[in-house]
Structure formats: C-alpha cells, structure tokens
Fold each of these.
Amino acid sequence: MNDALQKRRAAAPELMLPPQAFAPIPKPRRQPVECGDLPFVIKRDGTWLYRGSPIGRRELVCLFSSVLKREADGSYWLETPAERGRIEVEDVPWLAVEMDWTGVGPGQVLSFRTNIDQVVEAGPDHPISVRHDILTCEPMPYIRIRSSESGPPLEARISRAVYYELVALAVPGEVYGKRVLGVWSQHRFFSLGEMPNCCEA
C-alpha cells in the first residue's frame, strides 16, 4: 500500500468502511393508530353502510375495499398507514355476481366478477369452497379474493344465480374417496357437494 493512500486513510478513517456502511438506515414502519370500532357495516347482500346509510358511490366502496384487512380472530379492519379500525361484516365483504368460462375439462378457466368489479380466476390462488347454512343446510359457495397477512382469507360469496351456472358445469369426480360433483378451473377440481344417489351409475 503506498504512503499517500495510508495518509488519506489515517486522515479519513471512514475510507476503511465498506460501501454498505454508508447506506441510509431504514426507518421503522410506524404502526397505525387504533380507532376502535368504526361505524361501517357490510351487509350480507354486499351493501356497505356508514352510520346506517348505504354508501352510494362505488368509488368510495372500492377505496375502502382496498384497505380492508382481516385478523387472526376473523375480525375485519379498515387499515391505512395512519389509522385502523374494526368494522362489522355480516358474512363476507363481497358477492360474486357474474361468471364467465373458457375451455373444457381440467384446462377450463372460470372467471368471477364481484359486486365492486374485482375479477379473479378460480384456481390455486383463488379456490372455491362450499359451506352449509347451519339452519337450512343449504350450500353456500365462496371464492377467495385475496389472502390475509395475519388471518383467514378475504372471500366473496357466490350469488345464487352464479351458483346455478356452476352446477350446470359440474362433472363427477372423487374427493377423499367420496363421489362428488364439482368443477374444473386451471387444472384444479373444486367439489360442490356429494353426488346424489340418483346420479350415480
């Protein structure tokens, strides 16, 4: 090492530090302030209420939907970088009101549009599931819209009319050893329910 370089480093010890030592230190992410319960309710039919009145502007509903989160206990929150508050959701935040499909067999693709014009394709990232009403035992189909960072996924309930379209596309299959009717989308098979006895060969 030449004398000139040694003298410069002696005069400026920071020259001995690696370049990453001079990188800016990232600021810790500020936690949003909790505001408790907010006066929002999402009705079972997908209507958003604020202080008991429907929110008529779709743009506002879309904006609120974009900051909707779900916690590990299943609760729903509106969260911005500055504030967060819990809201009431009677069932799930959205309704799937329209379906389109292309292709046939396992390669078929089912696309769903929600009541706020979100479009998702059923598949590994957006599975279809069917639950049953506790009182009536009627099937209640859902599709995952997006995953949650810390809780259950956020879903849309598939409307009755769209569910009938799904049933019309259903084909026989087998899940966990049971004969079922289901639909294919992006090479994933989604059961809609056990096959009725009258349909079995």
Amino acid sequence: MSLYPICALIVGYLCGSIPFGLLITRAAGLGDVRKIGSGNIGATNVLRTGNKGLAAATLLLDALKGLLPALIAARYGIELGAAAGFGAFIGHLYPVWLGFKGGKGVATYIGVLIGLAWNVALIFAAVWLLMALLFRYSSLAALTACVVVPIALAALGRFEFALVFAAMSALVFYKHSANIARLRTGTEGKIGAKG
C-alpha cells in the first residue's frame, strides 16, 4: 500500500512537467517563450508575446495538469490525491524535460486546490480578486491568496491538505523572490500597466 502514494506522486510529477506554455508558443510559430520577458514558461510570460488567447490557453492547461491528477487520484484516497497534486505542482516548478527550470506554479496550485478542496479554491479566488482590485499587483494577490489557503484548510479541519498546501505556498514564495524584491522597491509591474 505504501507504494501507491509514491506512484501517485510520480505520475502527478510527469503530468505537471508538461511545459504547455513552451509547447503552445512554439506550435503557434512564436518561438521559445523562455527567450522573452522573464524567461518563464507560465501564462504571464506567454501574455508578453501579445497573444491573449495563447496566454489563456496556457493558464487553463497549467491548471488542468494540477486538477486532473489530484482529482483522479483522490477518488482512491485523499492521501493519493494529495500526493498526485503535490507531484504535479513540483513537476511544473521543476520539469524534467526542461532541465528542472519551470514556472512559478500559481496556475497549477489553483488546479490542485480545485481538485482537492474546491470550496477553498473559491476563497483563493476571492482573496486574489480583492487584492488585485485594491493594489493591482498580480504577484501580491497570488502570494496573499497562497498564505490564506493553508489557514483556511486548517480552519475547516482539512489538516491533511493544510500541510501540503503550506509546503506548496512556501515554494510559490520562493519562486516569486524576484517579484517580492520588486514589490519592496516599488518596481513591480501593475495589472494593466504598459511596458
């Protein structure tokens, strides 16, 4: 039985490692998205190509690669769902196909959260929207929502998920270290800002 969570983790990791942002932009003839903007493979950097449709597709697919492994594995046990979801998240951050250099994880984080605790995903969305409306920083909105998620899970008695999402939130903060530095200096780009 102890092998099942390991298998779920590995399958989730392989799903999460699929670099949709890179694949989509290459298929559209826009080249390597890692060579523009932040060099990231996520939806925010894909948006810098000027193609909102590709950015939306990347966001959706990055969320789905977290949602589907977590949702499917959770049907066989919550620990398997948590393992598969965590694996998918790690796969997005450190994809084996790209030399372990991936995205920042927010879309995949949301996908895993929807798969394991959709009611808390609504809380994430509400916090993100509130912070985005108040301050117009996407990174700040995401980071704040990631702080709230494990607290909300613990408050709802979902301690088995709270610990997993606390670890995931810590990794989101780590991957956003450059954004945090820019927030501190007031140089972080705002939502809707040009250039």
Amino acid sequence: MTELIQANIQSFFDSFWTTTVPLLIAAVCGGFVGLERERSRRPAGLRTHVLVCVGSALLMQVSLAMYEMAVLRGAGNGDPGRIAAQVVSGIGFLGAGTIMREGANIRGLTTAASLWVVAGIGLAVGANMYLESIFATVIVMLTLKTLSEVEHRWISKGGMHTITVHVSDSPGRLGMLATVCGRWGANIRSVSMKNSPIPGTVEISFFIRMSGRNPDTAGLIGDLMGTEGVVSVTEEE
C-alpha cells in the first residue's frame, strides 16, 4: 500500500511538471511581452498576450498527447504538428484586430507581430522547449524596448518631427491645424491632445513626417503661428 501511495505521489509530481509548469512558464513569457505593450497603450496588452501564450502552450500539449495516444493505441501515426499549424494560422484574426488605419497611416503592426510570436513561444513551451522559449522572449523584449529607441532616432533624422501647438479651446481648431500641416506637405503620423497649462487653451502634439519638397519645418511653424487662436508653437528634438 505504501509503495502504491508513493507511486501515485510520484505520478502526480511528474504530471505537474509536464503539464502545469509549462503553462506557468508560458504565462510568464507572454506576460513580459504583454506588459511592454500595455505600457505602450496598445490594443492588445498584458491579458491578451498571456492568454495567447498559455492557450498556445495548452494546445501544443493537447497535440502531443493526442499523438502519443494514437501511437500507443495503434490508431495511426498521428501528426503532432497539425494543431500547432492551426494555431499559427488562426492567430491572424487577433492580430488583424489590433491593426488600425488612421488616414493614410497604419498602426498596430508591431502588436500584431508580438501576438504572433507569443503564440510561437507558447507552442515551444508546450513542446517542453524551455530554453528556446526563454531566449525568444528575451529577443522579443529587446526588440520592442531597444530597437524602438533606435528606430525613433533613425526616423527623426529622416524627416520626422514633433510639433506641439497651444491653441484656444474652441471647435474646429484641430482640423484647421491639420490643414496647415497638409499645405506644407507634412504627413501626420499621430496626434495627441491634453490639457494645457495656459488657461483657455489645449495642447496638441503632431508627430509628422515632412515631404522631400519641404524638409524644413520653419515655414510650417511660421504658418502655424499665424493661424487664428494659436498661442505658441514648439518643436521637440
């Protein structure tokens, strides 16, 4: 009886290591990537990435278990990669949901890519490829955190500028400023608004890319300063 109890306990711990621990590792790996996306205020954040990674790990475990059952029972060779392939292709609907079009610009591609790679990490964890999963997570984090800064510096040298305008808080001001930017060939990549320390005004920041015919922002800033309701215009490095 004692040997039977010990065998059951050992079986429990073996099962715990092969099933529960991979799901926990997947949650941690997905959580790291999701936390970075959450801090960047992206559509798919911490919870989404954790769920995708854990779900992928679980499906990979199911795929391997079905393969083992098929082989042991002599029901056929089985294909452990079939479910994994469906995960890789099926994750596309979540990625598509994070991609947004804003005028001529598209946002969310990086988040969609992070969801796709997190699904791959989950599959690797489910296949007990822990070292590869952790290494992939490190590469993803370095890509999202470090390369974004490098990308920003390279882009800023290629005609990207941040123009901050303090303008009177009244209807139609945003459209008026956007029209001025368009007149100077500035492609607006993103716009943010917040309360201004100057009473009666709002602070509007334009992240723009100047066209080849007007690479300098001096004319644009001068035109913005002459726009009705504008109090001040500054350009950030």
